[in-house]
């Protein structure tokens, strides 16, 4: 099953706020720089890469020196506005050091749901990829009230990354989180917790293992990651959940290493990846 991942050409990489930020609220520049290097090298190898990045509000909180994520919607939107421009500045700087051009794509749920705007998004992403540009996709938190209130369950862009993967018919979605994979029990409280290497079906028992909401500056949690995996599997696509602390783990995944948890339908696991 893992061997088939070597042939993946079109990749969607999702990185959460917990990976981009330290627990003290400061930006993790070291991880972002390594992520830029890894994704740029994947492009050099001939892969097509889309980065779905959270972090606008977290970076905005840091920029404005706020002690915690605001709770008022207008304040959240203002912080996101500041944070998104700062986040793209950081990405552009680090990707630029490796000669890689990036482009910003901000989405809301109505855009991906409405047929005409969805087609426009698909055309934009395809055009960027054809030019060797890495699209950096984020929820448009400055106008997307529903996501800020956790109504649409995008969950720190977890579901959005799966939607993007379906839109571009990606071969693989790699979700970088602050946990090594999907466990049978909470690894932070159970030292003997066992991690799933592969999950081929989302059963009620699997759903029951998903826990609460995310970090101080993010909105995600294991439940939203499981929702993204369910979406991918319904689209006959593959997703790997793994720890983003060391972005070079992506290289290991592309070499077929047994890292993280692979979500894939059994029949999809042994199918040949399509050629773009």
Q: Would you write up a description of this structure?
A:
- The structure is a single chain.
- With 276 residues, the protein is an alpha/beta fold.
- The protein contains twelve helices and eight strands.
- Helix 2 packs across helix 4, helix 3 crosses helix 4 and helix 8 runs parallel beside helix 10.
- The two termini are 21 Å apart.
- Mean pLDDT is 89; it is low at 213-220 and 269-276.
Write down the secondary-structure element order: EHHEHHEHHEHHEEHHEHEH
Distance between the termini: 21 Å
Q: Structural class, from helix and strand content?
A: alpha/beta
User: Major sheet: order of its strands?
Assistant: 3-4-2-1-5-7-8-6
Beta fraction: 5-15%
Q: What value does the average pLDDT take?
A: 89
Uncertain segments are 213-220, 269-276
Shape, per Cα inertia axes: globular
What's the count of strands?
8
Helix content: 40-55%
- Specify the number of helices: 12
Largest sheet: 8 strands, mixed
Return Rg in Å: 17 Å
Question: Topology, please?
Answer:
Layout: E1 10-15, H1 17-20, H2 29-45, E2 48-53, H3 56-63, H4 73-97, E3 102-107, H5 109-113, H6 115-130, E4 134-139, H7 145-148, H8 158-167, E5 172-177, E6 198-199, H9 204-209, H10 222-234, E7 239-243, H11 249-254, E8 261-263, H12 266-269
Parallel strand pairs: 1-2, 1-5, 2-4, 3-4, 5-7, 6-8
Antiparallel strand pairs: 7-8
Helix pairs in contact: 2-4, 3-4, 8-10
Outline of this structure?
With 276 residues, the protein is an alpha/beta fold.
Features:
276 residues; alpha/beta; 8-stranded mixed β-sheet; disordered C terminus
């Amino acid at each position: 099953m893992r061997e088939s991942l070597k042939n993946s050409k079109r990749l969607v990489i999702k990185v959460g706020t917990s990976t981009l930020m330290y627990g003290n609220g400061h930006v993790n520049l070291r991880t972002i720089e390594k992520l830029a290097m890894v994704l740029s090298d994947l492009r050099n190898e001939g892969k097509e890469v889309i980065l779905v990045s959270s972090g606008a509000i977290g970076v905005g909180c840091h920029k404005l020196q706020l002690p915690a994520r605001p709770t008022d919607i207008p304040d959240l939107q203002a912080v996101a506005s500041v944070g998104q421009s700062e986040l793209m500045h950081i990405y552009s700087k680090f990707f630029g050091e490796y000669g890689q051009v990036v482009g910003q794509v901000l989405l809301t749920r109505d855009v991906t749901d409405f047929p005409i705007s969805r087609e426009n998004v698909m055309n934009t992403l395809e055009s960027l990829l054809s030019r060797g540009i890495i699209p950096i996709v984020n929820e448009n938190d400055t106008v997307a009230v529903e996501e800020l209130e956790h109504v649409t369950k995008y969950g720190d862009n977890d579901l959005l990354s799966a939607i993007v993967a379906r839109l571009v018919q990606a071969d693989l979605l790699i979700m970088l989180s602050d946990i090594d994979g999907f466990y049978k029990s909470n690894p932070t409280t159970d030292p003997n917790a066992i991690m799933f290497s592969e999950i081929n079906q989302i059963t009620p028992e699997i759903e029951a293992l998903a826990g609460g909401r995310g970090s101080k500056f993010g909105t995600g949690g294991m439940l939203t990651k499981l929702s993204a995996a369910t979406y991918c599997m319904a689209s006959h696509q593959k997703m790997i959940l793994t720890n983003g602390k060391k972005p070079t783990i992506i290289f290991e995944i592309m070499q077929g290493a047994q890292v993280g948890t692979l979500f894939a339908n059994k029949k999809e696991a042994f199918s040949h990846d399509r050629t773009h």
